[in-house]
Design brief:
By secondary structure, this protein is mainly alpha-helical. It has ten helices and no strands. Helix 5 crosses helix 6 and helix 7 crosses helix 9. The radius of gyration is 30 Å and the shape is extended.
């Protein structure tokens, strides 16, 4: 332990105990530690304590930086600061956060399914169109749905507690997901895929609706098994401004698993 550390502890003891001999010890240590500022060591009771504390902090930081524990602590502090900064920015710009999260989740999901599940080269036309779907539908529309419409409906209905949660989950899973989201998803998937390039919009939409109708029962089972717990937590614990980013993170997992299921059954 360095002289600066001993000097800091001596200063604490001297201040707490009002001891003359501790003051003398501190004066001696202070004089050894710094020859450039002897006037500050003239009276140990009136030392510049912060100067020595900073020296001690620098020495401890150097020791920590040389160890794996110190590197982990530095990474943890940096990550916490970055996360806090990102959270503050997302609260100030909820719409931009929603659009960015929706675009990123669908773009990354499409690339992962194409490369890992289907094991083929990335179709950048398809990825771009699915990213556009994520931006417009997931980012814009669901921002309005989960951040504006649902809260206003709950407020207007005077529901509270678990009754409001049940009502929101029922509306989301009973109406929106099976009868609005799924048709839109199938349509976007077919338009972005090879059939959209070959058949055009007029030939693609009937094909998309046929696949949607054929798979509605099995898709609803998957939706309820995954999205009901996700949405219960969403409406119970997630702040309104953070709902769409949370949904986008859950949608990324859903998109990868749902597209993988479609690919395994030859529907992609």
């Amino acid at each position: 332990m360095s002289t600066a550390v001993y000097a800091v502890h001596a200063a604490r003891w001297a201040q707490q105990n009002n001891s003359q001999w501790l003051r003398e010890i501190f004066r001696e240590l202070c004089g050894r530690w710094s020859t450039k500022t002897p006037q500050l060591c003239e009276d140990g009771w009136h030392v510049v304590y912060s100067t020595m504390a900073k020296q001690w902090e620098r020495e401890q930081a150097e020791l920590l930086a040389a160890s794996w524990h110190g590197r982990f602590q530095a990474w943890r502090i940096g990550a916490a600061a970055w996360t806090s900064s990102l959270g503050n920015w997302s609260r100030r710009h909820p719409l931009a956060t929603s659009c960015g999260a929706g675009t990123a989740s669908f773009a990354a999901g499409d690339v992962i399914v194409t490369k890992v599940v289907q094991q083929r080269e990335v179709d950048w036309r398809q990825t771009s169109l699915m990213s556009l779907f994520g931006l417009s539908w997931i980012g814009l529309l669901q921002h309005c749905l989960y951040g504006k419409i649902f809260p206003k409906l709950v407020q207007a209905s005077a529901l509270s507690g678990w009754s409001s949660v049940v009502a929101q989950v029922a509306g989301d899973q009973g109406l929106y997901m099976p009868f609005i989201y799924l048709p839109a998803f199938y349509a976007a998937k077919e338009v972005a895929g090879p059939s959209g390039r070959d058949l055009g919009l007029d030939g693609t939409m009937p094909l998309a609706m046929r696949k949607y109708c054929d798979n509605l029962a099995s898709d609803v089972k998957m939706i309820y098994g995954y999205w009901i717990p996700v949405q219960v937590f969403n409406f119970v614990a997630v702040p309104i401004a953070s709902r769409v980013p949370y949904i986008c993170a859950a949608s990324f997992i859903w998109s990868v698993s749902f597209n993988a299921s479609m690919a395994s059954t030859g529907l992609s």
